Amino acid sequence: MIVTHNSAAVIGRCLDALAEMAPSATAIVIDNASDDGTLEEARARSGVQIIANRENRGFAAAVNQGVQACSAEYLLMLNPDARILTALDGVIEASRAYGLAAGALLDKTGRPQKGFTIRRFPTPLTFWFELSGLNRMWPSNPVNRRYRYLDRDLDQKGPVEQPAGAFLMFRRDVWQRLGGLDEGFYPVWFEDVDFCRRATTEGYRIEYVPRVAAEHAGGHSVLQIPQGCRARYWCASLLRYGSKHFGSSSYRSVCLAVALTCVPRAVAGMIRERSLAPILSCINIFGFAVRRLISLRKSGEEPRLVS
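The structure corresponding to this sequence follows.
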């Protein structure tokens, strides 16, 4: 299942590689209202099943559409800017045995995308370090090393907590038991983390199989989101994740972290972009975080941020 939105520049290579490395697989492209020729590129390839949404339904909803539109037992989430380099037998075997599996994501030089291809589940402290910029300024700190698996050899297979949703396989019965991806994570961010966490809570294991690999450009989907909306969507999804998986005190601390750090991040954004737009984003994020801090609403009641 490949979710696209204005992905004309990359979807062709993605589909061609999938057809070469997994000729028996059926590619399903779920397009979220592209207007750049993505659908034309997909339709130019034979054997591709296409679902064309008239509006951007978000990543989670599109993946759920793809699962519901087919009957395959083993389902692969693949980003359009990923190009499969090997056969998929290894992740299929691991999914059969454990429920979920992922291969290695490589950069253009063939090196694993360390810090991205696999991660541990975020904790409240992880979010404090992320929001404050500490992980960017001091990437070797113990919190970041643990979160991004910087202490692990990416050539070694074995169980992991959270592979990137850019290249993740799971069995259909896992998706059914979990009720699919949570579409409240809109339009993107943390839906794959939430899915993996719920899977492990249900007793499934997620296996990392580095002999299966894909080249991944990275950032394609995220860069489609206007700069001013990116921080708002990321924070909203972060808080939704926290409301689902943290206790009330820990969740309050994350709400506080979002509120306190949005101002310095807005100032940095103003300097970087030479624009006042980050201030408007900051006001939106601050108000949203404070409302969550005060109300402590559960995840199912979380409203979406204003676009």
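The first strand starts at residue 2 and ends at 4.
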